[in-house]
Design a protein that fits this description.
Chain B: Keywords: Membrane, Transmembrane, Transmembrane helix. The complex is a heterodimer of chains A (517) and B (70). Helix content of chain A is 78%, strand content 0%. Chain A has 517 residues and is mostly helical. Chain B has one domain. Chain B has helices spanning 3-21, 38-45, 47-63, and strands at residues 31-32, 36-37. Classes of the chains: A mainly alpha (517), B mainly alpha (70).
Amino acid sequence: MKPAVFISLGILAYAIFIVWHGFRSFKSTSESSEKFFTADRGLNPFVLLCTTSISVFSALAFYGAPSGIYKDGIGFYSNTGGMVAGLMFVILGYRLWLLGKEYGFTTPVDYLRSRYYSEGYGLLVSIVLILFIIPYVAMQLIAIGDAVVVTTEGMVPYVIAVAVGTIVVSLHIIGGGMGSVAWMDTFHMCLGFGTLLTLIVYLTMHYFPNGGFVEAVDIMRQNGTFDILSTPGPNGAFDWKGIVGNALTGAIATVVWPHIFMRTFVASSKENFRQMSWAMPISYVLVYTPIVLIGAILAPAILGAGFDKPDNIVAVLSTQYAPPFIAFISLLCLFAFGVSTADSLLLSASAMASRDIYLHHVYELKGRSSDSKQVVKFGRIVLLVLMIITLIIVAVRPASITDYAYKLSSPFFAQILPATVAGLFWKKATKEGAIAGTVSGLIVAIIFTFIVTPPLGFSALIWALVVNTALLVIVSLCTKVPEEIIAKYHTRIDSIIYSGAELTSLTDATIAAVNEK
Amino acid sequence: MKKSSKIAFVIFNIIYFFVDYILVTFLPNPILFGWLPLQLCILLFLPVPAAIVWGIYFNAFFNTQKHVKS
């Protein structure tokens, strides 16, 4: 059998498996929106860890990180920000989880609209998030489509590849909702890690049999790629300012990406957060170490300096420098990263459109009671519409629109970070402050992305966050928060978190005093 | 939790992120074990001890949350 046929059949089997997995739970997820969008808030620690981590690692991490390291050196790896996302997930996530349990929140918009007592602010956030999820999803599918074409040597055309990818991802979510997405993400996490290890072991043993990485680094000393292994790298991009900018841009706002934000609401218990505090950074280390080693050592040693298509080094290594089985494994790894990010993002867009726009504005605000099944049905219709829009974008591939929108996705998602943090920890954060901060952040992100080069070497995202935070604080100090909001979001949550702690401290102090006596 | 534990945790994180974001670029870069540059070693593996410290701290924190129902 020709390798391209073998790989195509493998992709087909994988696609059928994913759709089957989603539709297995179609009936049970049709019964309630809580089940469809939050898996009944019942994800266990391991599944939550896998679905959160693999949703952060996109197809662009698998293809982009090795390319970035090959081009600019190991400093590029700072885009994980010292795994700060793990720390933030616990610090912000625990309070958000408590709020979700108390008030039934499911999406970022649920929380922000309610905390900032503003329908307009909620609508603004939901529209921005939904609009900019689509290009981000499209980029995942385009990466998959390109890789399928290369790996099958053109036997599967690009349009067919992206069409199958888009339909499979969408049907998977339509079938099973959050529960299905989370379990498939867990499978993808294991698949991604396993395939990365296989790829790295094969390349090392095949090309450097007499010393492994030591031999590879010796070759790098001679072929002019040794600068990759130090900062600031071959092009001088990663001095300390470059690293700080890259770290903050890549990592600090990860926790408020809509699909990651939603995962703070789906934990089954507080134990999830206890485990996430150490397990999430460790999962980053496990997955990123092979990715970094490919870009920093294996690719430079095998391909040498000045490779003319640095963006394709992973695809080239796995197809031209490895047998078909490894090429297929590598493609599965790309699927694991790409599909897990795309399905999570599409589900969050569907949740925001159906719950925060349709349910809230058509039913709740008009005092009409809603049927939970109807919300799920609408969520599925939204997913179908998103599937068609995404399909058109990835098939037509309007370079400018996709590229511009993609460049804005991450900076725009990040603009809810100041309002989220302030809403959790600062009683004085007001509606006016949140609106002024978020709107100014969006404007600054646009200006520094397309019109003016951001000063001091920091990215548009960082400057937008600085302006956003400054305006949020200043405007909040000039305005007033209603007492009931403070009672609901601060006094109540603080009392939940600290009442037990105070009681324990008091008991400890009393026992200590008695013992001393 | 004790205030001193919270302060120690904050100081640890400041030092950790300072090393991981800034100091790493100023450190010498000898090759360890014949293949692993020190700077890469720090970027790749410093998060492991950080994860251990975070785990210990939040384990202690969640021990104070036994009253919170799952």
